[in-house]
């Protein structure tokens, strides 16, 4: 009888732990499956299929999910996977400070911008063509990054980073 009781207690503990793990994972998982989400490491990515300027895409990414923001690519693995799933030009959540060569990730309203550490520029980029390219896109020339005008209309990458 004692063995059955300890076995039952063990099963309840395991079940409780499993439910807690699922609850934590669920907090960092998309709920709007009208978009084609995929996961790289601890980050979920999707895209917006309507072309808009950068600031509008920031708002549109937020509309998908309360916790989603315009996408950032932090690793070579993320860069490769995003390009393989979405082999097209997509705006990223990055901007340059006044043509200084200092690029930052947008971390949402109220979040502090974070200086970009790893760059995946396409050959010849950034070019700051006509002195007006202060935003960033991926998918250029085989998946590399390109600086673009923040006012030009492009599709965008969105993310939920856990």
Compile the SSE list and pairings.
Blueprint: H1 2-27, E1 38-40, E2 43-52, H2 54-64, E3 69-70, H3 76-85, E4 90-96, E5 103-105, E6 114-115, E7 133-140, E8 144-149, E9 154-161
Parallel strand pairs: 4-9
Antiparallel strand pairs: 1-2, 2-9, 3-9, 4-5, 4-7, 5-6, 7-8
Brief account:
The protein is an alpha+beta fold. The protein has two domains: 1-30; 34-161, Mannose-Binding Protein A, subunit A (Mannose-Binding Protein A, Chain A). The protein is built from three helices and nine strands.
Top keywords for this entry?
162 residues; alpha+beta; Mannose-Binding Protein A, Chain A; 2 domains; nine-stranded mixed β-sheet; 3 helices; 9 strands; 29% helix; 30% strand; globular
Structure overview:
The protein has 2 domains: 1-30; 34-161, Mannose-Binding Protein A, Chain A, CATH 3.10.100.10. The longest helix is centred in the N-terminal third of the chain and has 26 residues, at 2-27. It is built from 3 helices and 9 strands, in the order αββαβαββββββ. The chain has helices spanning 2-27, 54-64, 76-85; strands at residues 38-40, 43-52, 69-70, 90-96, 103-105, 114-115, 133-140, 144-149, 154-161. The chain has 162 residues and is α+β, with helices and mostly antiparallel strands.
């Amino acid at each position: 009888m004692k063995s059955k009781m300890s076995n039952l207690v063990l099963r309840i503990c395991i079940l409780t732990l499993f439910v807690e793990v699922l609850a934590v994972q669920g907090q960092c998982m998309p709920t709007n499956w009208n978009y084609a989400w995929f996961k790289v490491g601890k980050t979920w990515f999707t895209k917006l299929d309507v072309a808009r300027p950068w600031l509008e895409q920031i708002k549109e990414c937020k509309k998908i999910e309360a916790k989603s923001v315009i996408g950032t690519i932090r690793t070579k693995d993320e860069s490769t996977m995003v390009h393989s799933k979405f082999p097209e030009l997509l705006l990223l959540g990055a901007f340059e400070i006044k043509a200084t060569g200092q690029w930052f990730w947008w971390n949402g309203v109220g979040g502090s911008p974070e200086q970009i550490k790893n760059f995946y520029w396409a050959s010849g980029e950034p070019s700051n063509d006509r002195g007006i390219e202060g935003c960033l896109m991926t998918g250029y020339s085989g998946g590399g990054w390109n600086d673009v005008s923040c006012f030009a209309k492009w599709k965008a990458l969105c993310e939920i980073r856990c």
